[in-house]
Design a protein that fits this description.
Shape: globular
Number of strands: 18
Helix content: 25-40%
Strand content: 15-25%
CATH topology of the largest domain: Rossmann fold
Structural class: alpha/beta
Length: about 550
């Protein structure tokens, strides 16, 4: 057996059925072998970053390892932005990265790839090319346990080498959930018992620990209001005391209620500048109890009063036994306030539609079986706040590295993972035009993909920053071609949207959706997202 055959067979033994990538000489042999000999589905992108983003979206929606592949040199450098974004999003990926032959130097694509991967926090799993199976299996185990991309670097000449195919090594018994120390737990319980207006914020770590029921029990016992980080969006949607997203994308109501809290209990959320709204979300006298399995999580971004290290579910369960039952923050006035719908906008701007209203109308038109993927940019707060999802695995954010242009690829991967659902790719005009070729990918595979373009004919974040600085904004503005017509030439459907009324037919269009549909939503430049304005104010000081 040759190395590339052994690597492919070991991947299949790990349960791989789907691979995303772009073919080059670095994967020229392994891809046909996977497809024809091992019946693995291969989805080809138009750019390496798109391939990684597709695997990233697939991994986040399935909660399993995504696999992507590309060739060496420029294949890797093209892919790096998406790889770093996946690493920041804690996506478990295995990356088959081609490499130039070990016996030839001076080739055009030759570059030292390991330092490039290391610079982005991408792990490299070394292989024994005489028996590559243990290394491949370990790459998958590391991707799952460390929740990060793990790369296999495959020189083209060594892929052709004859090798052994050993049995898949047995996995070590997984460690049980980490229990908190009694002392840390007691201090946290004392602080929570003293609170009159507690709020609980749950993040991705809590979701991965399966802590939802335990956290709700804790909140119900103490009378706490519930909120989530962005990545855990919609986790408590069906709870009457749910506040929604905490942080930069909070509604004014949510922000005010959290700022009035005298105790904030955080489970598995980093409290980074998005979740803490740059440190302005919490009142100056609030007690913050941070519960996380990572030793270095508490205080990394936001100062905390108490740290409890351990598994989120175990901590919540053990805390409940030490907490007093009370009404807490759940007064009649708060209940009445939360029962009122949040009004996000009125579409009164004359130069374009209000993006808040557009997002609300799209939310109402979508079937419940939907996945939402957001690109990065000024617009992201609008769909993140207004478009709900059935559970957090159906929400994918590609903002971890602050790069625009990754959302469409991630949406394609998510749509492949959930082919029966409608996948919404919320993108800006700048991010869409950066990787327009991936619409062809979506068309080729006949995906049920709704592409919502928040088209302000500008790089919106930069435009608003320039305005706030009193500088000429001309460099941030662009003339955008008629996107709805442009995508029709590729094979997608497209609609021009200039007001909420233009979306009246959307529900029926979604019922019959069988290929990508793009909504070219001309939104006003005069609605500035609150998260951006607050970020500017923090930077100014």
């Amino acid at each position: 057996m040759k190395v590339y055959e052994a690597v492919a067979q070991a991947m299949v033994s790990e349960g791989v059925t789907t691979v995303f990538g772009l073919m080059g000489d670095g994967n020229l042999k392994i891809l046909p072998h996977l497809m024809t000999e091992l019946d693995v589905a291969f989805y080809s992108s138009r750019h390496e970053a798109g391939a990684v983003a597709m695997a990233d979206g697939y991994a986040r929606v399935t909660d399993d390892v995504g696999v992507c592949t590309f060739t060496q040199g420029p294949g890797l450098t093209n892919a790096m932005t998406a790889l770093v974004s996946a690493q920041r999003g804690r996506s478990p990926l295995v990356v088959l990265c081609g490499d130039t032959p070990t016996v030839v130097s001076g080739l055009p694509q030759d570059i030292d790839q390991r330092p490039i991967l290391a610079s982005g926090g991408i792990a490299v799993q070394e292989l024994d090319f005489d028996d590559p199976v243990p290394g491949v299996v370990n790459a998958f185990r590391r991707a799952r346990s460390e929740r990060r991309p793990v790369a296999l670097v495959l020189p083209t000449d060594l892929q052709e080498q004859e090798c052994e195919y050993s049995d898949v090594p047995a996995a070590n018994a997984p460690a049980g959930p980490r229990a908190p120390s009694a002392d840390e737990l007691a201090l946290a319980a004392e602080a929570i018992n003293q609170a009159e207006r507690p709020v609980v914020i749950a993040g991705q770590g809590a979701r991965l620990a399966g802590a939802r029921d335990a956290i709700i029990e804790l909140a119900d016992r103490t009378g706490a209001l519930l909120a989530t980080s962005l990545l855990t969006k919609s986790w408590f949607d069906d709870h009457p005391f749910d506040l929604g997203i905490a942080g930069g994308f909070s509604s004014d109501r949510t922000r005010a209620l959290i700022q009035d809290a005298d105790c904030v209990v955080v489970f598995g959320a980093s409290l980074n500048h998005f979740t803490s709204r740059g440190g302005t979300l919490f009142g100056s006298t609030a007690t913050i109890v941070h519960c996380d399995v990572a030793d270095d999580a508490a205080g990394r971004f936001t100062p905390v009063s108490h740290s409890v290290r351990g598994d989120a579910r175990v901590i919540a369960q053990q805390l409940v036994a030490q907490l007093d039952a009370r009404a807490g923050y759940r007064t009649a006035a708060v209940a009445a306030e939360l029962a009122e719908p949040v009004e996000l906008g009125d579409e009164s701007e004359p130069d374009g539609a209000d993006p808040r209203v557009i997002s609300q109308v799209i939310d109402g038109a979508l079937p419940r079986d939907r996945t939402l993927v957001i690109d990065a940019g000024h617009f992201v707060g609008f769909p993140s706040s207004a478009i709900s999802v059935p559970d957090p695995t159906r929400f994918v954010s590609t903002m971890g590295f602050g790069s625009i242009g990754l959302g469409l690829g991630a949406a394609i991967g998510a749509a492949i993972a959930r082919p029966d659902a409608v996948t919404v790719a919320a993108v800006g005009d700048g991010g869409l035009l950066m990787n327009l070729g991936e619409i062809d990918t979506a068309v080729r595979y006949g995906l049920r993909l709704l592409i919502v373009v928040y088209n302000d004919e500008a790089y919106g974040a930069e435009l608003h920053f320039l305005r706030m600085l009193g500088l000429d904004e001309a460099a941030s503005r662009f003339t955008v071609p008629p996107l709805e017509q442009l995508v029709q030439t590729i094979g997608a459907d497209g609609c021009d949207v200039r007001s909420a009324q233009d979306l009246e037919a959307l529900p029926s269009m979604l019922e019959n959706l069988s290929r990508p549909l793009l909504l070219n939503c001309h939104v006003t430049q005069n609605v500035r997202a609150g998260w951006l304005e607050e970020a500017f104010q923090r930077a100014a000081h």
